[in-house]
Amino acid sequence: MPEVSPRRLVVLVSGTGTLLQALLDAAQDPAYGAQVAAVAADREGIEGLRRADRAGVPTLVIRVEDFPDRDSWDVALTEAVAPYRPDLVVSAGFMKILGPRFLATHHIVNSHPALLPSFPGTHAVRDALAYGVRVTGCTIHLVDGGVDTGPVIAQEPVAVRDDDTVEALHERIKVVERVLLVDTVGKLVRTGWTIENRKVRIP
Ligand code: GRF
């Protein structure tokens, strides 16, 4: 059988990077079909960047505060990522809204710690807990110009416990989220996807 080269991922992070780590670990297996070509962050000094360093993956830090405005940051991030020729960009705990240039250049998926369209935004776990839902979870979705509004690809539920805290619930969501992200990204890059009327199908 002819060898198929692994698809190239660029992963965007802002924090601990345990989702990134799950992708790095999965990519060790050639059958996964993808490799992490680079990791980009919006800040220095985070564990996500150290995980990339330990895995020997190139890192980029493009900070909003180093640019006169969001547009220039958007252009800089787009241009910094482009040489890594990602087949797919994975936003894995990246705490910035991506700009129009980046969105027009790359296919991007985001992992969100709630069952969208419920609880979009930065405080999804806190908001779900405060609302009093009995079930929340995680969503992998394509990224569009809105805040967590892009077409849903995959979701998994997580039950809320009576004595939950934001931290405990988020940790249980992340256990499920890591598996779902690895599984979904692998399928997307190995087989591609179609999208019609917001319905994402992986053949
Ligand atoms: C994940 O729950 C992600 O959905 C959210 O931030 C968390 C990132 O965790 N936006 P980590 O940095 O990968 O550990």
Tell me what you see in this structure:
By secondary structure, the protein is an alpha/beta fold. The protein folds into 2 domains: 1-106, Rossmann fold (3-Layer(aba) Sandwich), CATH 3.40.50; 111-203, Rossmann fold. Helices cover 34% and strands 24% of the residues. The protein has helices at 18-26, 47-54, 70-81, 100-105, 124-131, 166-191; strands spanning 7-13, 34-41, 59-61, 88-91, 108-112, 135-142, 152-159, 194-196, 199-201. The strands form 2 sheets. Strands 3-2-1-4-5-6-7 form a 7-stranded mixed sheet, sandwiched between helices. Strand 4 (88-91), helix 4 (100-105) and strand 5 (108-112) form a beta-alpha-beta unit. The protein is globular. The mean pLDDT is 96. The structure holds 5-O-phosphono-beta-D-ribofuranosylamine (GRF). Residues 15-20, 48, 92-93, 111-113, 174, 177 line the site of 5-O-phosphono-beta-D-ribofuranosylamine.
